[in-house]
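Board work, copied verbatim: Membrane protein
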Amino acid sequence: MMRAWILPILLVLCGSVVATGMVSKGNLGAGAATLLAFLLLAGVNSPLIFPRSIGAREARRRSAADGRPVVYWRPGCAYCMRLRMRLGRRARRLHWVNIWNDPEGAAAVRAANDGNETVPTVVVAGRPHTNPDPAWVREQLSSSA
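↓ predict structure ↓
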């Protein structure tokens, strides 16, 4: 779990150092704006923005029961963030598997992507799709409901 927080923590620390340097030179406004920008980046890259992850086995079981897609992702992935943001509230209806927390999920992604841990990998009806268009994922979610 700690691995997911490394990037956000580094962003907060770096932002604090840069902002402190600006404030010490008398640039209070610029320092505050810089700190705010780094805090926003940390928030976007944190695990808090994604729905709660479950294990790959549980995700497959739930997907078989309700027909909803399974999304394999990892923190810090720009393409995963893009997918999450473009799905909006609908993202909570998907089954999310953090491959950094679930070795079985990482193995499923490697099996689907010639040994690479390329995310997001979305599994719909047992077929993996690597980095699909968010509009297509929305369609799959609508058809599964």
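Residues 74 and 133 are 17 Å apart (CA to CA).
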